[in-house]
Amino acid sequence: MAKPISSKSQNNLVFFLFLLPVVLAFIMVMIIPFIMGVYYSFTDWNAITGTTVEWVGLKNYFVVFQDITYLHSFLITVAYAVLSIVIMNICAFLFALLVSGKLRLTGLYRAGFFLPNLIGGLILGYVWQFIFNQAIPQLGKAINFLWLTENLFLANRWLALLAIVTVGTWQYAGYLMMIYLAAIQTIPESLLEAAQIDGANPLQRLLHITFPLVAPAFTVSMFLTLVNSFKQFDVNYALTNGGPSAMFMGRAIMSNQFLALNIYQTAFSYRQLAQGQAKAVIFFIVIAVISLIQVRANKKREIEM
After folding, report:
1. pTM listed for this prediction
2. Is residue 60 in some structural domain?
3. Residue 61 and residue 278 in contact, taking contact as beta carbons nearer than 8 Å
4. Among 18, 268, 273, 291, which one is most buried in terms of CB atoms within 10 A?
5. How many domains does the chain fold into?
6. 154, 132 contact by CB (below 8 A)
7. Residues 260-301: pLDDT tens digits?
8. Which residue range(s) make up the domain with 167?
9. 3-state SS track over 105-159
10. Neighbours of 91 (CB within 10 A)
């Protein structure tokens, strides 16, 4: 006589069947393409049907490490990531503090801060390109600020970088705000009231109560900001397309071409798909290592706090 299936086994089977489509989709869309990409990075693959793919070993990686444009893209992406992590998280935390208070129309403020995150990066890039190139010069002309009429924001390499940071912050700070807001709302009101009765001023309550209790939110938000900053593509492409041009190590380069855009240009503009895939593999390793270091450092800080 067959042994009856236990209730626990049935639950596990149902759980597996519900999970199976997601797992299959993840394997087909993420795992298999990633493995194929790693393989193609060691070949002379050009994506042309009918051509023979030959194994070239580490040749593509040697070429990548000698590519000055890739080195500059890495450096400028790190600079963008640092600025974004600092500015986005400060703005998001301040927004969370603002909308967590007892203000009128708090729900409207929350929706207003979060709304830009729902707009696609390409659309944001083109909209802000119009603002920087058209609206601000016209405003400068109207109020007689001549320096605003010179279209400096996207023509200067450092101002263009700050412009990308500004657009990224405007888009993403509202999303991070919701993470900080959820953490702030878990702080017991009685704890803050007790600190206030003991004579702690608002700054002391913020530093010694709010900060330690929302430390996990900082870990999550900084991780998301770091990863998204390194993966920045759409705003970079639409706003500046990597420009303006500048000199780096005696060679003309695109001064604000981030890593993702550099990989895209290598693969699809210059038709060097195998080299682009090698750059993408290096890109993945860099993001993984930096993200693990950041999460570990923040977790250690949580324990200390």
Report:
1. 0.86
2. no
3. yes
4. 273
5. 1
6. yes
7. 999 999 988 888 889 999 999 999 998 889 888 888 887 776
8. 69-262
9. CHHHHHHHHHHHHHCCHHHHHHHHHHHHHHHHHHHHHHCCCHHHHHCCCCCCHHH
10. 18
